[in-house]
Design a protein that fits this description.
Elements lengths: L1 H16 L4 E4 L5 E4 H5 L6 H8 L13 H12 L11 E5 L2 H14 L18 E8 L5 H17 L3 E5 L1 H8 L4 H6 L6 E10 L16 E2 L2
Antiparallel strand pairs: 1-2, 2-7, 3-4, 4-6, 5-6
Helix pairs in contact: 1-6, 3-6, 4-6
Bound molecules: flavin mononucleotide (FMN).
Length: 221
């Protein structure tokens, strides 16, 4: 999971670095940049706009996501770079309400408070479709899987869909005996294991951006 966060960070740095920024020199000659200026100037670049406007969505309309759009999203996912082009991932798309509601019932039995949350529909942050991503059990491939995921979330954003990367439901699915039939249904090879999921659907909220710490970014001269 840390690798995934790192890959998102790298992506943001690369894009933000290509824009005008204001900076101040530090005593060792490196530059602390003010990325708030850079990130507010996309100049109509659609990729930058998609990156900057993407937010984790946790409320979705009931409208199902068209299969064509889901196909486009996963096509963008598997076109992500991967070390030595190993493509060390397995991807499963689930938009079957019986699957989503069935496993949610099990989840709610263990977490009854969840069902009392305002607008609760299911354990995947209420989305009508979920994309599961699995990586090799030897721990490799997680960085590659992170890149696959960000590609899919940005593709979804550009298609008018909202997403939320999810780790919580995966722990439940992997550590709950009653959930085993749902895990088996995903047909993940035995040398792979679920890493995270992405909730996908038409957004029913527009959350504000959470603050980003640009002090963690430095230009070294
Ligand atoms: C690896 C990973 C796991 C996450 N797991 C969850 C989760 O289980 N539940 C959830 O609601 N959000 C989850 N998130 C979403 C983060 O909370 C969210 O990306 C972060 O707060 C920044 O907000 P933003 O995506 O709107 O910019 C996860 C994100 C990542 C990258």
């Amino acid at each position: 999971m840390r690798n995934f966060t790192a890959s998102l960070g790298i992506c943001s740095i690369i894009f933000a670095g290509s824009f005008i920024f204001s900076s101040c020199s530090t005593s060792n000659g490196s530059e602390q940049t003010d990325l708030t200026v850079a990130t507010s100037q996309s100049d109509g670049n659609e990729v930058v706009d998609a990156i900057m406007s993407r937010r984790s969505i946790r409320k979705y309309k009931d409208t199902p996501v068209e299969r064509e759009k889901l196909q486009q999203i996963v096509a963008c996912g598997i076109n992500a770079p991967s070390g030595m082009n190993k493509q060390p991932w397995h991807v499963r798309v689930v938009d079957n309400p019986e699957y989503i509601n069935g496993i949610t019932e099990l989840f709610v039995k263990q977490n009854p408070d969840m069902a009392n949350q305002n607008g609760f529909k299911n354990m995947f942050r209420n989305a009508p479709a979920v994309i599961f991503v699995a990586s090799p059990i030897d721990g490799s491939g997680q960085l590659d899987c992170g890149m696959l995921g960000e590609n899919m979330m940005l593709a979804a954003q550009s298609l008018g869909l909202g997403t939320c990367c999810l780790g919580g439901p995966i722990s439940f699915m992997k550590n709950t005996e009653e959930a085993l039939p749902y895990l088996k249904q995903l047909q993940i090879p035995t040398d792979y294991s679920l890493l995270y999921a992405i909730a996908v659907g038409y957004p029913d909220e527009a959350p504000e951006s959470k603050p980003r710490d640009d002090k963690k970014v430095m230009f070294i001269d």
